[in-house]
Design brief:
With 70 residues, the chain is of the alpha+beta class. Helices cover 31% and strands 34% of the residues. The protein contains 2 helices and 4 strands, in the order E-H-E-E-H-E. Strands 2-3-1-4 form a 4-stranded antiparallel β-sheet.
């Protein structure tokens, strides 16, 4: 199992969290998604490593943005 974290901006409520979880959850290979609204940290668990571009696209589909790691 692989775990990756992303920082997502623009989420302000529980509905935002649900939208992000739903979109990322539809990515093939994703086995779990946890979202911390307060910090914007999204933790994605998968069977094997996923392409960050795919996760970024799912977040953008939900209407939010992944912040690049510094």
């Amino acid at each position: 199992m692989t775990t990756a974290t992303y920082t997502v901006t623009g989420m302000t409520c529980g509905h935002c969290v649900s939208s992000v979880k739903e979109e990322i959850g539809e990515v093939p290979g994703v086995t779990g998604v946890e979202v911390d609204l307060a910090t914007g940290i999204v933790t994605v668990e998968s069977d094997s490593p996923l392409d960050a571009v795919t996760i970024r696209a799912a977040v953008e589909e939900a209407g939010y943005e992944v912040v690049d790691k510094q």
